[in-house]
């Protein structure tokens, strides 16, 4: 099986690449999970976060935004003591604030998925990169979403993090054309 070269040879990375990355997501809980993980990743490698993912799932109550939105100072302090996650107070507190805003967006648009997919008119953007150098780290869509989320009060979700979210959740297909997942993901996008 040919793969995008960024997934290297780590089994966790390969599994993520082969089963999740680029598959269109419409489930709000999954969108919330990726937003939390991607904002935690800022300044770190994605592999580091994938290795900590199970700890995040436990501490973030299965990434239920209603439960996370209710986290208080005691929960933050407990999370800061857990070496299974990135122990950065600002990122943890931002994730709680972001959960509250996530719920507001759900209420306004019926779901967070509806909110997000409207930026691409409900259809994934299919790119045809031949090399990793042809894959951007941001675009006008990620700029617009990041700007809108920031205006609503979300934090740690700049345009590059949002672009990574769009790639991960299938709003953008950036698998290399030589990767066997490019065509598979494209078929899932119809």
TrEMBL record:
Family matches, as InterPro entries: Adenine_glyco, DNA-3mA_glycosylase, DNA_glycosylase
Regions that span the bilayer: none
Gene3D superfamilies: Hypothetical protein, domain 2
Recorded superkingdom: Bacteria
Binding site for Zn(2+): 4, 17, 175, 179
Keywords from the UniProt entry: Metal-binding, Zinc
Pfam annotation, one family: Adenine_glyco
GO biological process assignments: base-excision repair
Keyword Zinc listed: yes
MF terms (GO), sorted A to Z: DNA-3-methyladenine glycosylase activity; metal ion binding
Name of the featured protein: DNA-3-methyladenine glycosylase I
Species, as recorded: Acidaminobacter hydrogenoformans DSM 2784
Organism phylogeny: Bacteria, Bacillati, Bacillota, Clostridia, Peptostreptococcales
